[in-house]
């Protein structure tokens, strides 16, 4: 009986060993490959010191013009992920670098780019907003130095806005909250103030407009090659109704011109050119 028991135990152990041996081992390298990575990134008005690597998280950033804020130019990722850019500030609200966050379903990776040749701050009156960015949102029209009122397009299911502001002058300061809560039935006007280094302020207003797409749909749309703008429906010259109205108006004008032309041809002159006027007789 004991021999039979030990024989069964030995057989069970052998079978378990074979099953475990057939299970492929997941290496740390394979696990790393499953996580989306930032494969390249570049900035306008700045160059990364050295070569960028997805596994290195700290870099120096050399500014082409230290008085001008660097902005994101281009990036590529291996895997599906969203990229967010925030500017690091010191206690005096002066820019010291850029923090780039790569967010994906299982977590996030943070890269820091510290200004190597930071601007020697001087007092000036430049309180111009250069850009306002965020997750799955779009400012329309594009921010420029002439306008202060804009529309902010967001997905229909978004309830928290995470915005990042970029001032034209690196010594200016913008008071954008880290998080802005917004109810699904709200379309508020978000005020954002830019303060120049000399204390002069400029108020910008962003009216929230919801598009008929979810956050996931907007993110996917923005990653597509043919994406242009979320404000497609408000660009009247791209709206089919505009072209219908325009063609109808042109057709109406053409018909009126035909009627007038035909009327001139068939009309009879009211007086004879050879006949003298009554008062001349």
N-to-C order of helices and strands: HHEEEEEEEEEEEEEEEEHH
Shape estimate:
extended
Question: What fraction of the residues are assigned to beta strands by DSSP?
Answer: 25-35%
Give me the count of strands.
Answer: 16
Estimate the mean pLDDT confidence: 81
What topology, given as strand order, has the largest sheet? 2-3-7-6-5
If you compute it from the alpha carbons, what radius of gyration comes out, rounded to the nearest whole angstrom? 33 Å
Summed up, the helix count is 4
> What gap, in angstroms, lies between the N and C termini?
153 Å
User: What structural class results from the helix and strand content?
Assistant: alpha+beta
Low-confidence stretches: 28-32, 235-243
What share of the residues lie within helices?
Answer: 10-25%
Biggest sheet statistics: 5 strands, mixed
């Amino acid at each position: 009986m004991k021999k039979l028991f030990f024989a069964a135990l030995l057989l069970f152990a052998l079978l378990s060993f074979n099953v475990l041996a057939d299970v492929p081992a997941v290496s740390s390298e394979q696990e790393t490959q499953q996580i989306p990575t930032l494969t390249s990134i570049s900035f306008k008005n700045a160059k990364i010191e050295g070569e960028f690597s997805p596994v290195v998280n700290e870099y120096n950033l050399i500014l082409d013009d230290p008085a001008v804020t660097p902005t994101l130019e281009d990036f590529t990722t291996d895997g599906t992920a969203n990229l967010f850019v925030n500017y690091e500030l010191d206690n005096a609200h002066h820019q010291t670098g850029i923090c780039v966050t790569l967010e994906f379903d299982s977590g996030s990776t943070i890269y820091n780019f510290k200004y190597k040749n930071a601007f020697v701050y001087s007092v000036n009156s430049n309180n111009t907003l250069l850009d306002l960015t965020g997750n799955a949102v779009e400012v329309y029209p594009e921010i420029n130095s002439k306008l202060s009122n804009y529309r902010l397009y967001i997905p229909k299911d978004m309830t928290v806005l995470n915005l990042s502001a970029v001032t034209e002058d690196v010594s200016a300061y913008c008071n954008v909250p880290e998080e802005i809560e917004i109810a699904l039935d709200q379309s508020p006007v978000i005020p954002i103030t830019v303060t120049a280094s000399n204390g002069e302020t400029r108020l910008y207003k962003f009216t929230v407009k919801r598009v008929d797409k979810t956050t996931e749909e907007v993110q996917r749309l923005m990653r597509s090659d043919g994406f242009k703008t979320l404000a497609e429906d408000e660009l009247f010259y791209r709206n089919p109704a505009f072209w219908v109205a325009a063609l109808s108006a042109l057709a109406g004008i053409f018909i009126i011109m035909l009627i007038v032309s035909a009327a001139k041809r068939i009309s009879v002159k009211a007086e004879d050119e050879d006949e003298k006027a009554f008062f001349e007789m």
